[in-house]
Specification:
Helix content is about 35%, strand content about 15%. It has 14 helices and 17 strands. The protein starts with 9 loop residues before the first helix and ends in an 18-residue tail after the last helix. Helix 5 runs parallel beside helix 6 and helix 10 packs across helix 12. It is of the alpha+beta class. It comes from Paractinoplanes globisporus. This is Amidase.
């Protein structure tokens, strides 16, 4: 039985560990065996500390045996996103400039997960500096989709999503500015949750008031995401936007009478027919659950200008000094984004701030009329891994590495919780995620809707290329 502990979800593993039916060492060994079997082909975990993980597991077993109280993630293995600083472990951001960077501290989300009893395995792959929703870089290479190794795993939390989907870890951390939790979750058939900004505070940070980017949880089930969020969430006095807590993950709720809006194109975005062919029948689940379901879209007409302006400005502030010193070390798309940011002046920032206020009010008006919004997570199914991004969607040309992500980053501008939950597979066997969005700060409702959808729709079949008992070699 212990050989296949990697197949268990986090909630059931946690219960088994607390009942001492299995040891933390057995759980870690099972996942290390799984990593050895599939990671060479998927390339999701890019730094691995097997001996450190086994030592930590032995200490966790001794702690439980002593009768001491243990944290909610006791004995669960996790590899952290390679943009999240991890004390004493290489954290590269996927950049050759930081290929040997070893932080002296844990970022807040890593610290909270470790204090809750998780076992650190290593780090998961990211695009260069987390820029773009396809995970590749010159330090570690491309992360591949467990459902089809020729396809992208998404990004920027692509390594995390691929590691989850192929059974290398039961929980994962990630971050999301324009879809970096949601897009890879959609591509890899797992669950990725962008919480309300402030639900998971960030520290240290040079932008303590920033609400564009937030850390959040990923897992294979909604219940596992809720478990991890209960650890990651909660106030921190160093974060001026942190929300009060704690967050209690009670997923049971009667959804009858809720008003649900379905927006298949979020106001006219191009969406691949393969995506809509999965999502259109899937959303009828909410009618079966007793909700009213109508087509409607919030006014997102200014989301493009606001997001692109603020993102470019942030990139210029963060990277221009290194870019000036080492321009050859930046991928062309990121270099372009930095140059775009340099062209943003005070007038553009002021107009973006005012437009963001109008978007916020439009979103609140929308959620006065509807309890939730349903939309595509990604406008395309997973695309070939040799592409940086899809250049065409439903006959519409995509000019940059950002264009195809609009269905995620337009939602970012609402300041609302948004989750990607698996909705089904294309005829070619590629996962498609449904995006569920609710009013800002209603994170629990978002999870409850996702859990009900997951239970009614059923979970996806596991990736055939990576879920065989002995790994990829038998497929």
């Amino acid at each position: 039985m212990t050989s296949f502990l990697w197949q268990r979800d986090a909630v059931s593993l946690s219960a088994m560990l607390r009942r001492r039916e299995v040891s933390a060492r057995e759980v870690v060994e099972s996942h290390l065996e799984r990593i050895s079997a599939v990671n060479p082909q998927v390339n999701a975990i890019v730094t691995l500390d097997a001996s450190g993980a086994l030592s930590a597991a032995a200490a966790a077993d001794s702690l439980l045996a002593s009768g001491a109280s243990v944290g909610p993630l006791h004995g669960l293995p996790i590899a952290f996103k390679d943009t999240h600083e991890t004390q004493g472990m290489r954290t590269t951001y996927g950049s050759p400039l930081l290929a040997d960077n070893v932080p002296s501290y844990d970022t807040l989300c890593v610290s909270r997960i470790m204090k809750a009893g998780a076992i650190r395995l290593g780090k998961t792959n990211v695009p260069e500096f987390g820029a773009g929703s396809h995970t590749f870089n010159t330090v570690f290479g491309v992360t591949r989709n467990p459902y089809d190794l020729s396809r992208s795993a998404g990004g920027s939390s692509g390594g995390a999503a691929a590691a989850l989907a192929s059974g290398m870890q039961p929980i994962a951390d990630g971050g999301d500015m324009g879809g970096s939790l949601r897009n890879p979750a959609s591509f890899c058939g797992v669950v990725g949750f962008r919480p309300t900004p402030g639900r998971v505070p960030s520290w240290p940070t040079e932008l303590p008031w920033d609400t564009l980017t937030t850390s959040g949880p990923m897992a294979r089930t909604v219940a596992d995401v809720a478990l991890l969020l209960s650890v990651m969430a909660g106030p921190d006095p160093r974060s001026p936007i942190s929300l009060e807590g704690p967050f209690v993950p009670d997923l049971s709720r009667d959804l009858r009478g809720l008003r649900i809006a379905w927006s298949p194109t979020l106001g006219g975005l191009p969406v691949a027919p393969a995506v809509l062919s999965v999502l259109t029948p899937a959303v009828s689940v909410f009618t079966d659950l007793g909700c009213s379901l109508v087509e409607s879209t919030p006014d997102l007409s200014e989301a493009e200008f606001v997001f692109r302006t603020l993102r470019a400005h942030q990139f210029a502030m963060a990277f221009e000094a290194d870019f000036d010193a080492h321009p050859e070390a930046f991928k062309p798309s990121l270099a372009w984004n930095i140059r775009e940011g340099r062209a943003v002046d005070a007038s553009a920032l002021a107009r973006a701030a005012l437009a963001w206020g109008r978007l916020w009010r439009a979103g609140l008006d929308f959620f006065d009329r509807f309890d939730a919004l349903l939309a595509p997570v990604s406008q395309v199914p997973p695309f070939p891994a040799e592409w940086e991004y899809p250049h065409e969607i439903a006959g519409v040309h995509q000019e940059s590495y950002l264009d195809w992500m609009r269905s995620a980053y337009h939602v970012t501008m609402l300041g609302a919780p948004a989750i990607s939950v698996p909705a089904g597979l294309t005829p070619g066997g590629l996962p498609i995620g449904l995006q569920i969005v609710t009013r800002p700060r209603s994170d629990l409702l978002t999870l409850q809707l996702a859990a009900a959808f997951e239970a009614a729709r059923g979970r996806l079949g596991e990736p055939p290329l990576t879920w065989g008992n002995s790994g990829l070699g038998d497929t």
